[in-house]
Amino acid sequence: MNFNKFSKENITIAFYTIYILIAGVFYELLPTHGNTPNGGVLLLYLFVPISIFYFMVHLIKQLYGNQSYAKCLLIHGVVWLSVAVILSTLSK
Fold first, then answer.
1. Nearest 10 degrees: CA dihedral of 6, 11, 13, 14?
2. pLDDT exceeding 70 applies to what percent of the chain?
3. Cβ neighbourhood burial of 39 (10 Å; 0-12, 13-18, 19+)
4. Contact 27, 41 (CB under 8 A)
5. Residue 33 pairs with which residues in a beta bridge?
6. Count of CB atoms within 10 A of residue 38's CB?
7. Engineering a disulfide at 55: which of 49, 50, 63, 76 sits with its beta carbon 3.0 to 4.6 angstroms away?
8. Between 33 and 11, whose confidence is greater?
């Protein structure tokens, strides 16, 4: 599959969309056993380090590369803020 025809912003949005959808599907389909979290919760825990790593890759490319990754960095911030707002409203 040739990713050159997709913009870096579209790839970033697609990554977050697919990751959150898969985490939601796992949360709904896989049962939890007592105190152990299911696959969706595990994916949500892994969301933080994976997204920070992805952000750092874009930040390094922004600082040392020839292309601008400012929109990608903005997308990361919007996704993190959205997830934090959604989780805070669900916990109430």
1. 100
2. 95
3. middle
4. yes
5. 36
6. 15
7. 76
8. 11
- Report whether pLDDT(84) > 70: yes
Please name the amino acid found at residue 58.
H
Q: How far apart are CA 46 and CA 42, in angstroms?
A: 6
Which residues lie below 8 Å from residue 14, measured CB to CB, with a gap of 6+? 6
The whole-angstrom separation of Cα 54 and Cα 5 is 20
83 pLDDT above the threshold of 80: yes
Pair of tokens at residue 14: 């697609």
pTM to 2 decimals? 0.83
3-state SS, one letter per residue, for 10-79: HHHHHHHHHHHHHHHHHHHHCCCECCECCHHHHHHHHHHHHHHHHHHHHHHHHHHCCCCCHHHHHHHHHH
Closest by CA to 75, choosing from 23, 7, 22, 2, is: 7
